[in-house]
Each structure stands twice: as structure tokens, then as C-alpha cells.
Amino acid sequence: MKHSKNESFEEIYRQHHPMVLQMGLGFVKGDKDTANDLSQEIFISVWNNLDKFRGASSYKTWIYRITVNTCLQYVKKDKKVRTLSPLELEHQTAIIDTEKTSHDDISELYKAIGQLKKIDRLIIMMVLENQDYDSISEVIGINPINVRVKIHRIKKRLETILKNNKNE
Amino acid sequence: MSSEFKNLQSHWETNKKSMEVSTPNFDSLYKKIKSKEKETYFFYYGTITILLVTLIVISLFFYYVAPVKDILSRIGAGLMILGLAFRIIIEIISIRKAKQIDLLDTTLKTAENSINFHRFRKNIHQVIAPIVIVLYTIGFYMITPEFSLYMPFWNIVLIDISYVVIGIVLFIVIRKGVLKEMQILTDIVKLKNEITE
Questions:
Q1: How are the residues of chain B apportioned to helix, strand and coil, as percentages rounded to the nearest 5?
Q2: Which of A118, A129, A159 sits opposite B1 (nearest CB)?
Q3: In contact, B43 and A138? CB cutoff 8 Å
Q4: Residues 6+ apart with CB under 8 A from B33
Q5: Cα angle at A145 between A140 and A148, to 5 degrees?
Q6: Side-chain half-sphere of B11: how many Cα atoms within 13 Å?
Q7: What's the number of domains chain A is made of?
Q8: CB contact under 8 A, A141 and B12
Q9: Contact A83/A29 with Cβ under 8 angstroms?
Q10: Mutate which of A44, A113, A151 to disrupt the B interface (most B C-beta within 10 Å)?
Q11: pTM of the model
Q12: DSSP class of B23
């Protein structure tokens, strides 16, 4: 039984770790150490709740709920989440990125996402993950119409932030 | 905006692919899970264990070591024991409320459950803990007259002074707890408003 739990967990980990880590990075404004800590916390929660998965929602929705709730609780527990200086951010992103990835773009994006409200950061990252309104609504707990309105507002805010950051 | 956003999505996706780990270190993760389980267990049952041990020690003390005879002292001892028992019951309710915060719920539901939990914790620090301390203090001073018959005067003075010092420390700890809970509550209420706005 334990063996099969380990197998399921490792499978989920392999499949979703990049998404969880990337959402963590976006949430903590690109701080790699904090994002790693956060992703560990998320997978500890996944392990603790693995037996409760009943298949009522997809694994992905299930993981998103754990990810979003853990991110918000993580900040609640630890107020010391720090913002990186542009230099640190550039350095850390360079470590993460492969040669193919334009790290300027992604670090700009992390920086811009980090300037949004906490819940808005998580919603926009789910949009970047190609999640539809219904899935996001299932995670957040508000109706899909409100989700659509919210996303529209967040996209506009993100666009303004990106423009302002470019002009700086 | 739409094409710009598609562009952001494409950067996001490309960067995510670069994060794939070929051989994750599961051993270290399982160790972390074990240590977290212990931490959680202590978080839930640490305070109860300390309070329960204190309750047992005090009960045994009054039963075997210093069985008080005066009615005033007996009421005092009863108040001290009752205060502690009441605090233990409140702690059990608090654990039940903490367990209602389920990460598998929606964000909105989790925020609501967190608000309930922290409101309850705030009431514990602000109302219940002081009541328990007052009960305990009244009980303590009710037994001192009988104790003073069997103990040297200076010992009683020393016990009384140390009790005041402990009282001041407890006041500081409780104040810190209230402030912390109020800050957390403000943050979660703000989050809930942001979700529903």
C-alpha cells in the first residue's frame, strides 16, 4: 500500500513539479530559494492529502487547489519573503534557464507578476498555464463569470505594469 | 493585448520546460515529510500535553503531597484545577477548528475557515486565557493562608513574588499572541475581500 502511495506520489511529482516550481517563482517574485521551499511545502501537502483524492476533480485541479492554498498560507506563516534586486533576479533566473530561454523576458514577467495582489498573481499564473475559466473557478471558489471579469482586469493591470517597468 | 499575452504564455511554457528534473531527490523529500509530520503533531498536541501534565502534577500534589483541609483552600485548589481543565477543553476545540482548514477546499472556503480559526484563537488569547489566569490566581491566593501555617513566612513571600513575575511574563506572551492573531486575521480578511471583489 505504502509502495503504491510512493509510486503515485513520485508520478505526480515528476508530472507537476515544473508547474509548481514555476508558480512558486512567480508568487515570490523570482526568489529561487523561497520558491524551492514553497514547492517542497506544496508536495508535502500533496503527500498528506494523497489518500483523500477521490477523483471528483482532475488531478490537475486538485494540485492547483493545494498549490494556491499553500502559497497563500506560506506567506501567512512566513512574512520574510523577500523581493530580489534586479541583479539577483537576473542571476537566479540565468541559473534556472536553459540557453534557449530568454531569461530577460521571464524575469521581467516574474517581476511584473510580483507587483500584483497575491490572489491575482495565482489567478494569472493559472491563465498562463492555459487553465480555462471553469477550472480556475473550481480552484478559487467564485463563479466563472466573475473569474472572467477578474482575469480581464488582471491582464490589463499586468500589461500596465510591464509597460511601466520597460519605461523605467 | 491578446497576442502579447500569447507571447507571455509562450515564454512561460518554454521556461517551465527548462525546469524539468530528470532525477528528483525523493529520499530527501521523504525525510522532510517525516520531520514535518512530527512538527505538525507537536503543533496540535504540544500545548495539550504540557497543560495535561501540569493538571496531573497539580492534582497529585493536592491529593498526596499537600492535601489542603480548609474549605477556602479546597475551593482554591478546585479553581486552579478547573481553570486548567477548561483551558485543555478549549485547546481541543481549537485543534478541531484548525483541522477544518482543508487545503483541498476552494481558496474562498479555505480563507473563510482560516478566518473562523484565527477569530477563535484571538478570543482564546483575549478572553479565555485571562479568565483562566484570573481563576488560577484567585485559587492560588486562596490556598496561601493555609500554606502559610506550614511554611516559613519568607517562603510564602518568595512564592507570591515569583507568581507576580510569572504573571507579568504571561501578560507579555498573551499580548504578543493577540497582536499576531490580529495581524493574521487582518491579512486573511483582506485576502477574502480580494477574492470576492
A1: 90, 0, 10
A2: A159
A3: no
A4: A44, A47, A48
A5: 75
A6: 17
A7: 1
A8: no
A9: yes
A10: A44
A11: 0.81
A12: S
Distance CA A84, CA A105 (A): 16
Residues 6 or more apart from B74 whose CB is under 8 A from it?
Answer: B68
d(CA A35, CA A24) in angstroms, rounded, equals 5
Per-residue three-class SS string for B103-146:
CCCCHHHHHHHHHHHHHHHHHHHHHHHHHHHHHHHHHHHHHHHH
Handedness of CA A100, A104, A105, A111 (dihedral sign): positive
**B18 vs A contacts (CB less than 8 Å):** 96-98, 100-101
CA-CA distance, A34 to A39, in Å (whole number)?
Answer: 9
Rounded CA gap, A26 and A31, in Å?
Answer: 9
Residue A44's identity, in one-letter code, is I
Is the pLDDT confidence value at B155 over 80?
Answer: yes
Residues 6+ positions from A8 with CB-CB distance below 8 Å: A50
Q: Taking the alpha carbons of B72, B73, B74, B78 in that order, is the dihedral positive or negative?
A: positive
Residue bearing cell 505538525? B40
Q: How crowded is the C-beta side of A58, counted as CA atoms within 13 Å?
A: 9
Each residue's pLDDT tens digit, A98-141: 444 456 778 889 999 999 999 999 999 999 999 999 999 999 99
Q: Which three cell numbers stand for residue A31?
A: 526568489
Task: Confirm if B138 and B144 have CB atoms less than 8 A apart.
Answer: no
Residue-wise pLDDT tens digits, A46-102: 999 998 877 667 778 899 999 999 999 886 454 444 444 554 544 444 444 444 445
Residues A141, B195: C-beta atoms closer than 8 Å: yes
> B184 to chain A: which residues are within 8 Å by CB?
76
Q: Residue A21 is which amino acid?
A: L
b/e B74-85 (16+ beta carbons within 10 angstroms → b)? bebbebbbebbe
- Which three three-digit cell numbers place residue A111? 517581476
Whether the complex's predicted ipTM surpasses the cut of 0.90: no
Q: Which three cell numbers stand for residue B48?
A: 495539550
CA pair distance A81, A23, nearest whole angstrom: 15
Q: Which range marks the domain in which residue A122 is found? A: 2-167
